[in-house]
Amino acid sequence: MACDALLPGLGGFEYVLTVVGLLYVAKVVACLLWAGAAALRAHFWSRLWDKKLVETYGKWAVVTGCSDGIGKEYAKELAKRGMNIVLISRTLDKLQKVSTEIVQEYGVETEVVQVDFLDGRNIYEDIAKHLQDKEIGILVNNVGVMLHHPMEFELASEKDIWSHVNVNVASVPAMTKLVLPGMLLRGKGAIINVASIAGLYPIPLMGIYAATKTFVDFFSHSLEWEYRGSGITVQTILPSYVSTNMTKFLDNIHKPSLFVPDAPTFVSNAINTLGYARRTSGYWAHGILVYMAENFGNKWIFMFSNYMWNSFLLRNMKKNQARNR
């Protein structure tokens, strides 16, 4: 009754509210349609065209953290498309194995650079020597570390802290600094920075990892704006869980599924988005998660749900460890 008494008094204001509501609904629908069209273009339309990466970007690709997982698959996919590959990682045996696989399967040139990004600034002079006189067309800043499992910050070691800083953070601008001048001189090139959906908001129990991936996202996005029109493509990749060594601590997030692709599936999708999306999840199912988090999410809800999820993973991991003793 009170509501009925109030509405007649609203008069023209009720009409204004109706118009505002309709405009908001129209905006939501338009945004959904735009996002859907962008997703179709990046993840499906892009597959219809053969990408001539050597002609578009250059002869050589540099991939960091390429002895396993996403980095290894990026190296193989780029080699499959005719690019020579500079493989940079810390384990020489794994590097040589990947190099041999690529040469035998795709017949391209490779060069192996053994460095540990945990060592920080000192390694980049050595890397620069290996990149001299090479037409670097694509750089994939993939190397990364993550806590062995969800944990409170006080339980993280000094090595955990500095590995996140030197590997996840410092490597991205440092490697970019090495290749960008040559790309600018040639007026072509692509820099692919692998961030994470974890960098969208703070994540309790994985806070240091999420914070470093926020840096990658922000740096990459700003770099893309700075060099628009220069011929340089800067792409940010924001994946969710991918079945790699980083997720092997628990089957819940390691067993391949629709929303947890294995590395070959993820990279075969992500590589096709190059030139079609500046900032993308890389994989269509992850794109749904990113879109929902950014457009319908809330920081508090995201943090709470991830805290509960990471707590659940931690409990399950401890149960599995207890069973295996």
Helical/strand content category: alpha/beta
Biggest sheet strand order reads: 3-2-1-4-5-6-7
- Which range does the strand content fall in? 5-15%
> What is the number of helices?
12
Low-confidence stretches: none
Distance between the termini: 67 Å
Write the H/E string, N to C: HHHEHEHEHEHEHEHHEHH
Provide the residue-averaged pLDDT: 90
* Rg over CA atoms: 23 Å
Percent in helix: 55-70%
Number of DSSP strand runs: 7
Taken from the alpha-carbon principal axes, the silhouette is globular
Major beta sheet summary: 7 strands, parallel
Describe it.
- The model has no long low-confidence stretch (mean pLDDT 90).
- With 325 residues, the protein is α/β, with parallel strands linked by helices.
- Strands 3-2-1-4-5-6-7 form a seven-stranded parallel sheet, sandwiched between helices.
- The protein is 55% helix and 11% strand.
- It has helices at 2-10, 12-43, 53-56, 69-80, 92-106, 123-131, 158-186, 207-226, 251-254, 263-270, 284-295, 299-324; strands at 60-64, 84-89, 110-114, 136-141, 189-194, 232-237, 279-280.
- Helix 4 (69-80) packs parallel to helix 5 (92-106), helix 4 packs across helix 10 (263-270) and helix 7 packs parallel to helix 8.
- The protein contains twelve helices and seven strands.
Indicate the topology.
Elements: H1 2-10, H2 12-43, H3 53-56, E1 60-64, H4 69-80, E2 84-89, H5 92-106, E3 110-114, H6 123-131, E4 136-141, H7 158-186, E5 189-194, H8 207-226, E6 232-237, H9 251-254, H10 263-270, E7 279-280, H11 284-295, H12 299-324
Helix pairs in contact: 4-5, 4-10, 7-8
